[in-house]
Amino acid sequence: MGLMYFLFISGVKMDLATIQKAGRKQWLIALFGVLLPLGAVCAVSLLFWNYLDKDIAKPSSILAISSLLAITAFPVLYPILKELNLLSSEIGRLALSTAIISDVVGINIVVAFEAAKQGEVRSINALWYILSVIATLIFVMSGLRRAMAWIIRNTPAGKPVDQIYIVGILCAVLMMGFLTDFLGAAIANGPLWLGLAIPDGPPLGSTLVERSETFVTEVIMPFAFAYMGLYTDVFSMSGNWASLGPMFAMASVGLLTKLVTVFLCSLLFEMPVRDSLTLGFIMSLRGEVEILLFFHWVDYKILKKPGYAMMVLLILMVTAVATPMITLLYNPDRPYMVNKRRTIQHTPPNAELHIVACIHDQQTVVGLINLLDVSNPTLSSPCFVSALYLTELVGRAAPVFIDHEKQDPPSSHDKKIENALKRFQESRAEYVYIHSYTAVSPRRTMYQDICELALEQKATFIILPFHKELYDTRGGTQLLRRGVQSLNSKVLDHAPCSVGILVDKGHFRNPLAARSFRRSSHRFAVLFLGGADAREALIYADRMAGSPEISLTVVRFLSYNYMGDDEMEKKLDDGVVTWFWVKNEGNDRVVYREAVVRNGAETVAAIQAMNDNSYDLWILGRKQGINPVLIGGLLEWSENNELGVIGDYVASVDFGGTASVLVVQQQVLRGQENKSFSQQIFACGVC
């Protein structure tokens, strides 16, 4: 029963439309990856024909064994790729689409095997079996699919599917298993076909997955695995090597041919050697589906206990070897870290500013639009914005990335967000160009979509909303966005450009205040504590100060007697600050001053003294290159590492005020990502 529900959920997640979207690469890798191993296993079986058991030495049995070794099951592949964080990676997407094509071929081969077994008794039985399967498929894909569409139509927009429908569908899984087993098809085919008849994604597919997947995988499946283990008698293999040897040779040749075929096909499409080998190992993975088919073969007396035990051990060994090899060969984050500077500081003054703006919900849109507005886009330096709407992947397996200029957005897309972006672009048509995208992927791999888009668009700056939304600064009422804190941290670790996290808790969030905000002057403050991040923040603030509506106050914090200063960082800071002051010396809207402090307590006191509710936005660097003396004694009080020590304090409820906070991290070049802030602190010897 556990495997039936496992295959049902896998069918719900599968999107057969992927086959239509698949390109030449996916089709050729899938077809050659199935046909060549299948042919190799058949060839080996002919060589050992006289040594095979009589139940295996039949065309139908050889077809079954060769097809199992040649086909990669999507239900096996998906959870492993999810565990390895490869779903949103290029290699993961390629593997999933290839596996779906392979599964379609596999289902046809399973049907052919069942028909051949039926025909071994009487030829007419094979015909009746095929007709029964066709009738069942028509019933599932026509009748049941229409019923599912009716359920979706009768579910109000934004509301979950009624519980009675969910219970009815879960009961139908058992009925479909009984029906296909009664017709002579494999008992697992019915639940899988039923799952394929259910539209993936919200509302029905996502609701079914949300309400049943955890129970199936965490409660029912362990019992299924326990039963498989109890049935596996390793000691039964002793004394049976004469019959097991040929089968072992067939399995070894089939799996090796699969690996080599996928590897060579990938090379033909000019994929890197490591990526090609990784794809080969991915397509060699085996698991629950194969063990279920072994049980099915035992029922047909194709396999006996020794053969079953050997095949189970073999696929366990293959998966145990392939999984760490995939991790060793392929790093999904490798393409994002680059050696070329993509920062605001190193962007020429009159060049375009390429920005990736991430959106989770309606609450984040107003703040992002206002931040783009005060970024001072001009004719000589316009803003090219890639607006990325992020949606968590639920109820489907394959992640989706949609370019709104080439494809229609998904049905779950919020039209209000699209309209807000459209109105903003129309109001600043000469200075701002917005290109919208939608990424539907798991939270744990969503950062890959953000980094990939930033890399493709050659972005200079990524804007991320903070994971907390503050509604009442006096009472501390907050909205927490699940999984966003981890997402922001991963983007900071792997981004190919500079990153800013916007903590929106004032005018930047309220739509009514936002309209008046754009019509009035406003004051920003830069807290310059030194280091690469602070320099990036100052350069961005300098761009904002070019607008006549912006008043800017810059406060540079220096340690008493230069204690703890890094000489190189100090020189770089002096150069940027001097350039900024010389440029804005005649600008009455820009104020610069310095504060000398002895420790973190004095730094906090100086910042708190500025907090008189006259500022609309605090801008500061995250952590790179900060003198540890300036934050001495504050590290243990920091809760949100993605904001840095001072950023976390300024954004906290305890700090008070309605001013929003922008924390900036300058791009970390490849090879420098392992130099942590803690190492800098210990190197300076400051606690």
Describe this protein's structure.
The chain has 687 residues and is α/β, with parallel strands linked by helices. It has 24 helices and 13 strands. It has helices at 2-13, 17-21, 24-47, 59-70, 74-83, 90-119, 123-153, 163-182, 189-197, 204-231, 241-268, 273-282, 288-299, 305-329, 362-374, 415-427, 446-456, 484-494, 511-519, 532-544, 567-584, 600-610, 644-651, 677-684; strands at residues 353-359, 383-392, 400-403, 432-441, 461-465, 468-472, 477-480, 498-503, 522-528, 550-559, 590-597, 617-621, 660-665. An 11-stranded mixed β-sheet has the order 3-4-2-1-5-8-13-12-9-10-11, sandwiched between helices. Helix 20 links the parallel strand 9 (522-528) and strand 10 (550-559). It is elongated. The model is unreliable at 510-519 and 676-687 (pLDDT under 50).
Please outline what is shown here:
The chain has helices at residues 2-13, 17-21, 24-47, 59-70, 74-83, 90-119, 123-153, 163-182, 189-197, 204-231, 241-268, 273-282, 288-299, 305-329, 362-374, 415-427, 446-456, 484-494, 511-519, 532-544, 567-584, 600-610, 644-651, 677-684; strands at residues 353-359, 383-392, 400-403, 432-441, 461-465, 468-472, 477-480, 498-503, 522-528, 550-559, 590-597, 617-621, 660-665. By secondary structure, the chain is of the alpha/beta class. Helix 1 (2-13) runs parallel beside helix 9 (189-197).
